């Protein structure tokens, strides 16, 4: 077994540990006889503006105000103009000279009341009820006036007159529209004289008053009471 003396201890070199700080701020570590390794010190200046990518300016547009909503008011029934009366004039093609003059007298009177009218023609007296029924039920007319001539010398005069009157009354009641009979009953000579004097205009006054009565019932107004 060998022992170490103090002389032997002097031959041992204690490793030196020193920190060498070269100029410039770098540092080296040295252990014993090894050559110090120099730490890489690459000092570069970094521009802060380069670290952020340039972005285009974004303009924020304020939202446009929505247009104010407009409220459309529905028209009230009182605002609409009232439609005028419409009267259908139905005449026979027989006895044209007499019948057309009666229609003309009535037409002129209706114009005085500012009432619009349309004229329709049928072949004979027997077809007047059919035309009156169609015009009051589907034609949109407020009233119908039927024109014709019935000669008292005709053997069928009593039967035709009674049937015609009853048919027109039934149609008027069924359709709730005035149907006025403007058929002259008599001889041709007497009819010519009366028609020249304006016979036929009175039927215009009658149908206008009846049509106004129907309008009162439709609108819900009270019917005029007779004077006491």
UniProtKB/TrEMBL annotation:
The enzyme's E.C. designation: 2.5.1.78
Pfam families, sorted: DMRL_synthase (PF00885)
InterPro entries on file: LS, LS/RS, LS/RS_sf
Gene Ontology CC entries for this record: riboflavin synthase complex
Compositional bias ranges of the Polar residues kind: 28-40
Keywords: Riboflavin biosynthesis, Transferase
GO biological process: riboflavin biosynthetic process
Gene Ontology MF term list: 6,7-dimethyl-8-ribityllumazine synthase activity
Enzymatic reactions: (2S)-2-hydroxy-3-oxobutyl phosphate + 5-amino-6-(D-ribitylamino)uracil = 6,7-dimethyl-8-(1-D-ribityl)lumazine + phosphate + 2 H2O + H(+)
Region Disordered, annotated ranges: 1-82
Compositionally biased region (Low complexity): 65-77
Keyword Transferase assigned: yes
Keyword Calcium attributed: no
Metabolic or biological pathway, per its Swiss-Prot or TrEMBL entry: Cofactor biosynthesis; riboflavin biosynthesis; riboflavin from 2-hydroxy-3-oxobutyl phosphate and 5-amino-6-(D-ribitylamino)uracil: step 1/2
Similarity-based family: Belongs to the DMRL synthase family.
Role of this protein: Catalyzes the formation of 6,7-dimethyl-8-ribityllumazine by condensation of 5-amino-6-(D-ribitylamino)uracil with 3,4-dihydroxy-2-butanone 4-phosphate. This is the penultimate step in the biosynthesis of riboflavin.
The name this protein goes by in its record: 6,7-dimethyl-8-ribityllumazine synthase
Organism: Peronospora matthiolae
